[in-house]
Amino acid sequence: MRLLLLLCLALLATCSFSLEQEVEVTPETFIAYKVREVFPSSRRVVITCHSPRAPPPITYSLWGSQGVEVAKKVVKTGDPASFSINITLKSRPELLTYSCRAASLRGEHSASTKLQMYWELWAKPMAQPRANFVLLERGSGPRVEISCQVSSGSPPITYSLVRKDGYVHRQQRPTYGQPANFSFPLTRTSNWLRCQAANDISVQSSPFRLVPPGCEQKRQAWQSPLEGSVFVCYGRTHHW
Description:
The protein has 240 residues and is mostly beta strands. The chain has 2 domains: 27-121, Sandwich (Immunoglobulin-like); 130-239, Immunoglobulin-like (Sandwich). Helix content is 11%, strand content 47%. It has helices at residues 2-22, 117-121; strands spanning 30-38, 42-50, 58-63, 69-75, 81-88, 97-104, 109-111, 115-116, 130-138, 141-149, 158-163, 168-172, 180-185, 191-198, 203-205, 209-211, 215-218, 230-233, 237-239. The termini are far apart. Keywords: Glycoprotein, Signal.
């Protein structure tokens, strides 16, 4: 009986060891590119695909937009696969998206992240931002809400509220396609502010606006000469 029990324990240990040995990590696949030649409306680009942890031979395939296979190559060593392609400027950015897929003989498959070649190769300068200023009178006191957005420009885009003296009052980097929204309470000092949008190519700004508008900066009878004037605002909401 004892011998049978020992035999069962040995079999369980062997099964457990076998299960642990079979657990493997799925290899990662990386994608990169280099520009070889530049033309007015196209680029000659070399895209490399590499799955360093996958055992060779590895079948690499390059995929374009809408699930179209562009090229395929079998690499029998641990080196990356290189694909030389001519990329033409398209009207829609999503048509210039590429990714790599790798497959080994053991059935391992992995895919890279997507390479957005439109934003990489045809970056756009900033358009002039549109700024919407709103003055709100709340229970806690008057506040200013400012929305800034550009119609075109390559990401990432940084929006800033800038004073005339160059001081950056607020700054945001929202998701591409979304406006930057700033909100802050009024102070006793009025300021000229404008919205500035910047990317890696250019900087554009909206016209300066006086904050707050629709308010008069008056000195009250109860104030001493050393105190700053206060704002007298008319209406609960004011757009300008």
